[in-house]
Amino acid sequence: MQIKNDLLLRVIRGEKVERTPVWLMRQAGRILPEYRAVRESVSGFIELAQTPELAAEVTIQPVDLLGVDAAIIFSDILVVPEAMGLPYRMIEKKGPWFPGTIGSTKDLKRLQIADPGESLNYVLEAIRLTKKGLNGRVPLIGFAGAPWTIFAYMVEGSGSKTFSKARAMLYQNPELAHQLLEMITKTTIKYLKAQIEAGANLIQVFDSWAGILPPYQYREFSMKYIKRICEAITEAPVTVFAKGAYFAMEDIKDLPCEVVGLDWNMDIATVSKQMNGAKVLQGNLDPAALYAEDDVLVAQTKKMLDQFKGDKHIANLGHGVYPDISPEKVKLFIQTVKDYTRVT
């Protein structure tokens, strides 16, 4: 199916575009009253994500209500460990929690390399339904967590400021760590290929906890596995978003991916110089800027866009939109991007 608004894909292909495409991480979520209404109809986040019809509905909402240039499938990075045999719960106002964790070779034997057609079919069905509902309006983004980030949750058991258990394993039992990362990587490659086959037009890999590792460990326990994923996914463009990994930009430049996501702490000029036109850059307005008065938000958005001039660019925030931000502020950010590039 031909996509009517293909700005995002054209930028990635290096084609000339009339304006910068724009979408937001976590755009399908709590900022929208329409999303909250759907969520309140079920027991919680996990049931919503595992009900393809509802997941498709909330995926499409931002396209209709916010005017973004891409949809991103409503799901969670932690569906991968669950498919591998490590279920989790989503605790309201606290986040994910794993009743069981991986700490030994014995624990590893409880896991499997998942078959996405079986254990993750609800995500694939949501993608198929979303594609039908979008009817070619905008591209659909699929995603997964980077192996290190998934590993961190599977060993730690929950979110953490330090992920000290997960980081301890890298020192105490690096062989076990690599065995687990290998299983996660193999599952993730199969899962992302299945998403593309179901209809995803491009893929984003989220390394949410990249910034908590020292550079030498990041190269060994994260970058080598992200590289494996990028090498394997040849059917669609890949974006790598490694939050906090400013120290790894030279390595990320060498990855066989098309797009590099920047968090809001990364200096645009520095990354632009490092990439030297080799990648499309995505980002990176501070999400907290959406709390500002309208004129400040507009000015900050234009300042960001000015800094990306000369680069192939996809406008986004430097992280997911915060749940208490007004949808009107999000709309203003999006409209500012559209208006700016139309007149310059």
Topology:
Blueprint: H1 7-12, H2 33-39, H3 45-49, H4 52-65, E1 71-72, H5 79-84, E2 89-91, E3 95-97, H6 105-108, H7 116-119, H8 121-134, E4 140-145, H9 147-156, H10 164-172, H11 174-198, E5 202-207, H12 215-232, E6 238-242, H13 249-253, E7 259-261, H14 268-275, E8 280-285, H15 294-307, E9 313-317, H16 327-343
Parallel strand pairs: 1-4, 4-5, 5-6, 6-7, 7-8, 8-9
Antiparallel strand pairs: 2-3
Helix pairs in contact: 4-8, 9-10, 9-11, 10-11, 11-12, 15-16
List keywords for this structure.
344 residues; alpha/beta; two-stranded antiparallel sheet; 9 strands
Describe, in short, the structure shown.
With 344 residues, the chain is of the alpha/beta class.
Which sheet architecture does the biggest sheet show?
Answer: 7 strands, parallel
Uncertain residue ranges: none
What is the CA-CA span between the terminal residues?
A: 32 Å
What is the number of beta strands?
A: 9
Q: Residue share in helices?
A: 40-55%
Bulk shape? globular
The SS-based structural class is alpha/beta
